[in-house]
Design goal:
By secondary structure, the protein is an alpha+beta fold. It has a single domain, classed as Trna Endonuclease, Chain: A, domain 1 (3-Layer(aba) Sandwich), CATH 3.40.1350.10. 41% of the residues lie in helices and 31% in strands. The chain is built from three helices and five strands. A five-stranded mixed sheet has the order 1-2-3-4-5. Strand 2 and strand 3 form a beta hairpin. It comes from [Roseibacterium] beibuensis. Belongs to the UPF0102 family. This is UPF0102 protein GCM10023209_01280.
Length: 124
Amino acid sequence: MANAKRIERGQRNFHAGQAAEEQVARRYERDGHRILSRRWRGPLGEIDLIAEKDGETVFVEVKSAADFSTAAQSLTRRQIDRLLRSAEHYIGALPTGSLTPMRFDVALVDRSGRMEILPNALMT
């Protein structure tokens, strides 16, 4: 029974994460970005969203939780490192490579669906 509850909780969290990513993607589109990829997966990990606007590539990590503080605290050093390595792999395949203008945003979504986007949160 405990295993069934754990599976149910995992599925609920997965679907909530997908809904948060969709909400964030729509926000970026409303702000004039073009979504290049959702859940892009490379050999080094996954990037939730990759967007572009005015020649700048934006890598977005989406975190959802009961509140913004909890969502922000759930972003670990390991996840940040994975995001940076994955982005490096992604841009390596672009014509401009490491000269590509880019930034790393973190999008926080709380349980009620409110969103806070932290532009250039990783200050790279």
